Amino acid sequence: MIRPALGSTTAAAIAVALLLSGCAGSESRTSTAPEPAATEERAEVSSVTIDAGWAKAAEADGMTGLFGTLRNEGSDDLVISGVESDAAKTVELHEVTADGAMQEITGDVVIPAGGTLELAPGSDHIMLMGLTRELLAGDDVSVTVTFENGDTVRITVPVKDYAGANEEYAGAEDHGEHGGH
Ligand SMILES: [Cu+2]
């Protein structure tokens, strides 16, 4: 009668010890988190990067473009489903039409597996509209790109002064004379 009681006490003690070591293990960040955690962690992937990324300096409440080469080092094509930024009220993917106006891209924007998506002045770009702060040369600006599979990637680029990328936004209201052309 004594042996089983001792046995179960020992088993319970071992279980508590395992539980404690389990807690200690999950609290230590050194072993499981090699990279700093993102502020909002969904399914952040590291297989998408930007080469030579930059954004054009712009005033608060204005709009600006973000450019660079998005690279998908994963094995699946990635379809962009949304872009957001704490620096802008609205973020869209834009293209520049043959007549030099820019507009939101309505079709799928894909970064092919093992391939790239070029974002450049006068061509496709990430448009930040309703800037929540002035973007000065030397600042950093971040956008979070979400893909249709639920993955996200946060991209941070430097702000630069740039004289180009002044395309009229086809969706913007005309503050001057009434166009009609
Ligand atoms: Cu644009």
Write up what this structure looks like:
- By secondary structure, the chain is mainly β.
- It folds into two domains: 32 residues; 117 residues, Immunoglobulin-like (Sandwich).
- Strands 1, 2, 3, 4, 5, 6, 7, 8, 9, 10 and 11 form an eleven-stranded mixed sheet that branches.
- Bound molecules: copper (II) ion.
- Copper (II) ion binds next to β9.
- This is Copper chaperone PCu(A)C.
- InterPro entries: LpqE-like, Lxx211020-like, PCuAC_sf.
Secondary-structure blueprint of this entry?
Layout lengths: L1 H26 L15 E2 L3 E9 L6 E10 L5 E7 L3 E9 L5 E3 L5 E2 L4 E4 L5 E7 L8 E8 L3 E10 L21
Parallel strand pairs: 1-11, 2-11
Antiparallel strand pairs: 2-3, 3-8, 3-9, 4-7, 4-10, 5-6, 5-9, 10-11
Bound molecules: copper (II) ion.
The site of copper (II) ion (CU) has 6 residues, from strand 9.
Keywords: Signal
Pfam family, one: PCuAC
Protein name: Copper chaperone PCu(A)C
